[in-house]
Amino acid sequence: MSEVNLSDATFEKNVLKSDKPVLVDLWAPWCGPCRMLGPVIEELAGEYAGKAVVGKLNTDENSETMATYRVSAIPTLLFFKGGKLVDQMVGVQTKAQIKAKLDALI
Asked: What is the mean pLDDT of the segment spanning 86-92?
């Protein structure tokens, strides 16, 4: 299973109304650090299938969500549980660091 492609239009349904914890990767195609993080996010999507939702949101195409959560730098990872933002990480992170945050939500 690969990550879910999120948009401003699908954010509420796929993130805020999810019955599982959600990791949202805010990225853009021109962002080098975002591209470095991409394969890690894809691996996590497979590893957490059925336990958590792992999604990517292209900030160039979806500025509303970025503004709502006051994201000023990418890559930014947002962690949601029960429809609420509970944690975030800015910049490139290791897979172990991201897993630790996700595991704490499951």
From this structure: 96
